[in-house]
Amino acid sequence: xHNTNNTYAxxxxxxxxxxxxxxxxxxxxxILAAIDVKEKYIEKWACIEDLLRQMAEQDxxxxxxxxxxxxxxxxxxxxxxxxxxxxxxxxxxxLNIEPSFATYYHLLCMSHNIDGFPESQSHVLYxxxxxxxxxTFCPQDPDDVYFFTNAMKTCLELKDVQLAYxxxxxxxxAENRIMLGNMAQKNFYYMSFFELLAVMEHFDVLLxxxxxxxxxxxxxxxxxxxxxxxxxxSGDCLELIPQIWKDIKQFGFSLRDTIVQEVLALMAxxxxxxxxxxxxxDCAENIKSLHDLKSKNMxxxxxxxxxxxxxxLFARAGRTQEAWNMLQLFKKYSQVPSxxxxxxxxxxxxxxxxxxxALELVKLTAEYGIQSASVLAKTTxxxxxxxxxxxxxxxxxxxGSCGYK
Length: 405
Prior knowledge:
Blueprint: H1 2-16, H2 24-37, H3 41-57, H4 64-74, H5 80-94, H6 101-112, H7 118-132, H8 147-158, H9 161-172, H10 183-200, H11 203-213, H12 222-234, H13 241-250, H14 257-269, H15 274-292, H16 304-316, H17 320-332, H18 339-351, H19 355-368, H20 373-383, H21 388-399
Keywords: Ribonucleoprotein, Ribosomal protein, RNA-binding, rRNA-binding, Translation regulation
Pfam families: PPR_3
InterPro entries: PPR_rpt (IPR002885), PTCD3 (IPR037387), TPR-like_helical_dom_sf (IPR011990)
């Protein structure tokens, strides 16, 4: 098989290299391949040492990629790796070879391998950031692009926002941004940064970064939007939801059930000042129109929560007819309005003093078997001017003698 041949070639290379003239890049490749030949960590390292000895005998000078290859190989050498990594770094200094971002990436990975010791990751990353803040870099190793994403992920794991800011300043410096890697890596870096800010910073700081980074630096995913909505909530800035809803539509998430449910739930949870209620109802109207779309790829389906929340939002904004239309949908989707929905609906009808609508609402709640139907009937009797026939209907409902349960 190809793999066996490969292993044979490497074994040959390691034992028979004295007879073959090779350049530094061949040795770099063999160093990486050496770890596949041997099972035990000590043997893997012995293989690498053997190759380095042959380089010296053939008078081949190691370069940055040689040392990065050794560190990359060491990542798979367990506990052996950390002691040896120090030797490698000392050797690099002695030869005046400056590390690249790949060097730091491999060192950071080694610190992750120490189970249950986050302080070792913290210690290593602080040491790295202290060093890279003072230097300038250019791309030298294909693995350079893995450093920033992993470093930011580590900041997130450590919940260290100050270190993340320092790291981000390094990204912004000179040509460093090109070493963020491809679009997926770049997005991963910024999403980790944003998640850390969402967890650790005040909402106004998070919003400043959101405006700065989205969409110029990265496009958010569902998780980013959910984090932003939760931060809006804990920062007591729910009035900004309609503004964020525009972004949600722009980024193509307006048909995502989790996001739509969250937006509706946050808007409906508390009573807001009138102008906010108006903006929330406009948002709810937009969400209702999306439920009416018959999209092939994705379709929003009404659930009990979204039906209740949308009805509540229309009712609180005094949009009686739209709230009433929503109530009709409950039966269609085999759902029952909540007590709060009925209460808000009743408040809206009372505001516009529509006795006939109040009576219809009482009938509807009785049909649905909602417990508060009789209480609602009593309140309607007390608070509306009614005809004798309307009063009789209400009394019948209260006594449960009209066939309504």
